[in-house]
Amino acid sequence: MTRYTIVAALAAAGLCGAAHAQSPRPDPWGDATVSRADEQKQAEERFDALDTDHDGSLSAKEQAAAQNQRGPGGGGLRRADTDGDGKIGKQEYVDAQLRRFDMQDADKDGQLTKAERDAARAQRMRQGGFGGGSGGAFEGGFGGPPPGED
Asked: What is the pLDDT of residue 13?
Protein backbone atom coordinates (compact mmCIF):
# COMPACT_ATOMS: atom_id res chain seq x y z
CA MET A 1 0.00 0.00 0.00
CA THR A 2 2.82 2.42 0.87
CA ARG A 3 4.46 1.76 -2.49
CA TYR A 4 1.25 2.78 -4.30
CA THR A 5 1.01 5.94 -2.20
CA ILE A 6 4.58 6.89 -3.10
CA VAL A 7 3.97 6.22 -6.79
CA ALA A 8 0.78 8.30 -6.71
CA ALA A 9 2.59 11.16 -4.94
CA LEU A 10 5.40 11.13 -7.50
CA ALA A 11 2.90 11.12 -10.38
CA ALA A 12 1.04 14.08 -8.87
CA ALA A 13 4.29 15.99 -8.41
CA GLY A 14 5.19 15.34 -12.03
CA LEU A 15 1.83 16.68 -13.22
CA CYS A 16 2.27 19.82 -11.14
CA GLY A 17 5.69 20.39 -12.68
CA ALA A 18 4.28 19.95 -16.20
CA ALA A 19 1.49 22.42 -15.48
CA HIS A 20 4.02 24.95 -14.17
CA ALA A 21 6.16 24.55 -17.31
CA GLN A 22 3.12 25.48 -19.43
CA SER A 23 2.51 28.77 -17.62
CA PRO A 24 2.20 31.94 -19.73
CA ARG A 25 5.30 33.04 -21.58
CA PRO A 26 7.58 35.48 -19.82
CA ASP A 27 7.54 39.12 -20.78
CA PRO A 28 10.49 39.58 -23.17
CA TRP A 29 10.88 43.20 -22.15
CA GLY A 30 11.17 42.37 -18.45
CA ASP A 31 10.63 45.51 -16.43
CA ALA A 32 11.59 47.72 -19.35
CA THR A 33 9.48 50.60 -20.54
CA VAL A 34 8.96 50.45 -24.31
CA SER A 35 8.53 53.52 -26.44
CA ARG A 36 6.09 53.67 -29.32
CA ALA A 37 9.04 54.16 -31.69
CA ASP A 38 10.66 50.98 -30.34
CA GLU A 39 7.43 49.06 -30.88
CA GLN A 40 7.14 50.37 -34.43
CA LYS A 41 10.68 49.22 -35.18
CA GLN A 42 9.98 45.79 -33.64
CA ALA A 43 6.74 45.47 -35.65
CA GLU A 44 8.57 46.28 -38.89
CA GLU A 45 11.19 43.64 -38.08
CA ARG A 46 8.53 41.05 -37.22
CA PHE A 47 6.72 41.76 -40.49
CA ASP A 48 9.94 41.33 -42.45
CA ALA A 49 10.50 37.96 -40.75
CA LEU A 50 6.93 36.80 -41.53
CA ASP A 51 7.09 37.98 -45.16
CA THR A 52 9.07 34.97 -46.31
CA ASP A 53 8.69 35.67 -50.04
CA HIS A 54 9.67 39.32 -49.48
CA ASP A 55 6.88 40.72 -51.66
CA GLY A 56 5.80 43.37 -49.14
CA SER A 57 2.62 41.60 -48.01
CA LEU A 58 1.63 38.56 -46.01
CA SER A 59 -0.14 36.06 -48.23
CA ALA A 60 -2.70 33.57 -46.93
CA LYS A 61 0.10 30.98 -46.72
CA GLU A 62 2.36 33.30 -44.73
CA GLN A 63 -0.54 34.24 -42.45
CA ALA A 64 -1.31 30.56 -41.83
CA ALA A 65 2.33 29.92 -40.95
CA ALA A 66 2.27 32.87 -38.54
CA GLN A 67 -0.96 31.62 -36.93
CA ASN A 68 0.87 28.44 -35.94
CA GLN A 69 3.63 30.34 -34.14
CA ARG A 70 3.63 31.20 -30.50
CA GLY A 71 4.62 34.78 -30.07
CA PRO A 72 4.79 37.77 -32.39
CA GLY A 73 2.48 37.53 -35.35
CA GLY A 74 1.00 34.34 -34.00
CA GLY A 75 -2.66 35.25 -34.10
CA GLY A 76 -5.30 37.77 -34.98
CA LEU A 77 -3.77 38.70 -38.30
CA ARG A 78 -7.09 38.84 -40.12
CA ARG A 79 -7.97 42.03 -38.22
CA ALA A 80 -4.88 43.71 -39.62
CA ASP A 81 -6.26 43.32 -43.18
CA THR A 82 -8.06 46.66 -43.13
CA ASP A 83 -8.62 46.85 -46.89
CA GLY A 84 -10.06 43.31 -47.02
CA ASP A 85 -7.90 42.11 -49.90
CA GLY A 86 -6.87 38.91 -48.10
CA LYS A 87 -3.27 40.08 -47.78
CA ILE A 88 -1.66 42.14 -45.06
CA GLY A 89 0.67 44.86 -46.17
CA LYS A 90 3.53 46.04 -44.02
CA GLN A 91 1.76 49.29 -43.12
CA GLU A 92 -1.42 47.41 -42.17
CA TYR A 93 0.61 45.11 -39.92
CA VAL A 94 2.57 47.93 -38.27
CA ASP A 95 -0.59 50.02 -37.80
CA ALA A 96 -2.31 47.08 -36.07
CA GLN A 97 0.64 46.69 -33.70
CA LEU A 98 0.63 50.40 -32.89
CA ARG A 99 -3.14 50.37 -32.27
CA ARG A 100 -2.57 47.64 -29.72
CA PHE A 101 0.28 49.62 -28.17
CA ASP A 102 -1.95 52.69 -27.92
CA MET A 103 -4.72 50.67 -26.30
CA GLN A 104 -2.32 49.47 -23.61
CA ASP A 105 -0.68 52.88 -23.06
CA ALA A 106 -3.12 53.89 -20.32
CA ASP A 107 -1.64 57.33 -19.65
CA LYS A 108 -1.10 58.03 -23.37
CA ASP A 109 2.48 59.19 -22.87
CA GLY A 110 3.93 57.13 -25.73
CA GLN A 111 5.68 54.84 -23.24
CA LEU A 112 4.40 51.40 -22.34
CA THR A 113 5.43 50.34 -18.86
CA LYS A 114 5.41 46.85 -17.41
CA ALA A 115 2.52 47.90 -15.17
CA GLU A 116 0.48 49.00 -18.21
CA ARG A 117 1.28 45.75 -20.06
CA ASP A 118 0.32 43.70 -17.00
CA ALA A 119 -2.94 45.63 -16.60
CA ALA A 120 -3.82 45.09 -20.27
CA ARG A 121 -3.05 41.37 -19.97
CA ALA A 122 -5.22 41.10 -16.84
CA GLN A 123 -8.06 42.89 -18.64
CA ARG A 124 -7.85 40.44 -21.57
CA MET A 125 -7.94 37.55 -19.11
CA ARG A 126 -11.06 38.98 -17.44
CA GLN A 127 -12.68 39.28 -20.86
CA GLY A 128 -11.87 35.69 -21.70
CA GLY A 129 -8.88 36.45 -23.91
CA PHE A 130 -5.47 34.89 -23.71
CA GLY A 131 -3.08 36.74 -21.46
CA GLY A 132 0.22 35.32 -22.54
CA GLY A 133 2.52 36.59 -25.20
CA SER A 134 6.00 37.25 -26.29
CA GLY A 135 7.95 39.56 -28.47
CA GLY A 136 7.33 43.19 -29.12
CA ALA A 137 5.93 45.48 -26.52
CA PHE A 138 2.97 43.30 -25.77
CA GLU A 139 2.09 39.90 -24.68
CA GLY A 140 1.98 39.15 -25.12
CA GLY A 141 1.98 39.53 -26.73
CA PHE A 142 3.07 41.23 -26.09
CA GLY A 143 3.62 42.14 -29.64
CA GLY A 144 2.14 40.17 -32.41
CA PRO A 145 -1.58 40.16 -32.89
CA PRO A 146 -3.66 43.27 -33.33
CA PRO A 147 -5.93 44.60 -30.59
CA GLY A 148 -8.32 42.16 -29.02
CA GLU A 149 -6.70 38.94 -30.18
CA ASP A 150 -3.84 36.87 -28.93
From this structure: 45
